# Entry
Amino acid sequence: MRLPQNSLKPALIGLCALLLNACSTGQIVARSSLSIMDSGVAAMNREPDLELAKAAIPANLKLVESLTREIPANRELRIHAAQGFYGYTFGFVEDENPARASALYRRGLEHALAALETAGLGDPMTMPRDVLHQKLADLGRDAVPDLFWAASNWAKWIDMNRTDPARIADMGKVEALMQRVLELDETFYFGGPHIFFGVWYGSRPPMLGGNFALSETHFGKARNITQGKLLIADVLYAQYLAVQQGNRKAFHDKLTAVVNTSADSYPEMALANAIAQHKAKILLKNEGELF
Amino acid sequence: MIKKWGFFLLLLCAFTARADEPYVLKFATLAPAGSTWMNVIAEWAGKVEKESQGRLKFKFYPGGVSGDEPDMIRKIRFGQIHGAAMTGHGIGSLYSPARVLEIPFLFRNYEEVDYVRAQMMPEIRAGFRKNDYELLGWMEVGFVRFFSRTPIHSMDDLKKHRIWQWQGDPLSAAFFSASNIAPVPLPITEVFTSLSTGLIDTVIAPPLGAIALQWFTKTPYMTEVPMADGIGGLVVSGKFFNHLPKDLQELLLRTGNEASEKLLVETRKDNEKSLGVLKQNGITFTLAWKDIKEADVISIRDRAAADLAKSGYIPAEVYDRAHKALAEYREKKAKQR
# Structure
């Protein structure tokens, strides 16, 4: 049977509209979710209960990942995903299951690299080092979150794979990314770039590229940025610099002070501080092993 | 009287408690936790603890937390730690003739290294023991090569480069003197910066070391010809070792040897993988064995050995024995062909 042409036209138009709608519904939902994403992150940062956060974050991560499938080139979503994977893995996975942590940091890195690609950097993993340095110099302040979460996840992915020369070879690229963040905004994420370099220089002996004076300076600057309210800076100082220097007193005093800090001392970052206190307790328990 | 017995009982209890206390071997290394070396060493420690039923335990100081190798040796002498996994740099201060295995241009491949080392091992072990150290196992840093800013195509090219010399290292000093090269002596901590500023343009390192220290990012060329095979050892102080009951001494030696075999295999694999990673990162390999005049390197090798014999660092007879073992191996190999 042949349909009359005039009856086919509206049907086709209707179908196209329906298909177009179907294509864009996910994207519309994804875009509209962006506005509540920021408040979601803020609410999670204020969560003081570790168990609740540990149980809640994975579902949120999957939600963000599903939204990135709808709008893969959205930098904001990619950065949320990269930050989420980093925070969840650092807080709840790394100490218990390094192999799983490696895979999760890598996922965080992939999201951050997708954001950087959209920002115009290209792929730093395959790029020659000199090209990377040139391209980094062209990036401005708006690329700071992309760079920061890429370098943070990448450094941790390397850290979880210390037996793999291919991973270790990328350390210089990671350093270059975070160095650019330091130049563009040293206060980003509560002095995050300074905390990064505090660990970077404090976690190795001078013979292997460590520099205790530089580490001390970076940890000091990170502390100043939050007036010492973000406890993770002190925990990492103890875990890396104090251990590397064999300074048991600094290790013990810093961690004891972290443990004794009131849980509501920094409500905006209650979760990060609860994680820091949890890590501090574990480190204090292992003090005898470390010195 | 009761008081007296009470005192004896207390003493007895004190001794019993001490006898139950496990021996703790405090062991340091520059290798970071989670690296191949530390993983194998930690596995060794687990085996020792299990087989000794907890009577002998390790306490680790990885990643250089006990300082560099001279610091570790000082701490071993003061009894603050008891043992360490050390490279040739540290071994030179414990029993320098062991570094005969690091003589420049002595070996062409690992088969030669393994053969000569096996021949020399009894006297090396005895040498450590005589100096109040026990060698529990052998390991390797691997073949060290020249990493340079501009290509090296011949031994003469080497002379045109500003090459880093590990400050205070008698073995590399002998190599440079034998090669008529004026090196730039620097502590290892200044190498990366000096490559950036141009104070030096060439370094000597095993492939994995060049990656771990990021030196390869400043040196786009690497020689295929290695300068020497970097050695390493698992060492414990004689004071600690001799204090152990016989069965625990045997356990440490046996398992140390097993760990050592694994360390050799894994380090060689890591260096092989590292060569691939260097290629992927755009490093160009230059100066293969075919580009070298045999007589040139033999002359450098023998002059360096003579220099080290003169200072007493590696006695001439030790070098002669190593050399003889190598000749023996090469002859056997030639006959098989």
The first helix of chain A runs from residue 5 to 45. The radius of gyration of chain A is 22 Å. Chain A touches chain B through 26 residues (CB under 8 Å). Chain A has a mean pLDDT of 91.
